[in-house]
Amino acid sequence: LATGTAPFICRLAFGPQPAFNVPAIDALPLSHPALALATLVLYVVLGALCGVAAALFIKTLHFAVDVFERVPGRYTRHVFGMLLVGVLIYALHRSFGHYFVEGVGYSTIQAILNGWGAAAWLLGLLFVAKLFATSTSLGAGSSGGIFSPSLFMGCTLGGAFATVVAFLLPSLALDVPAFAMVGMGAMVGGGTGAAMTAVTMIFEMTLDYHIVLPMILAVAAGLGVRRA
Question: pTM to 2 decimals?
Answer without folding.
Answer: 0.93
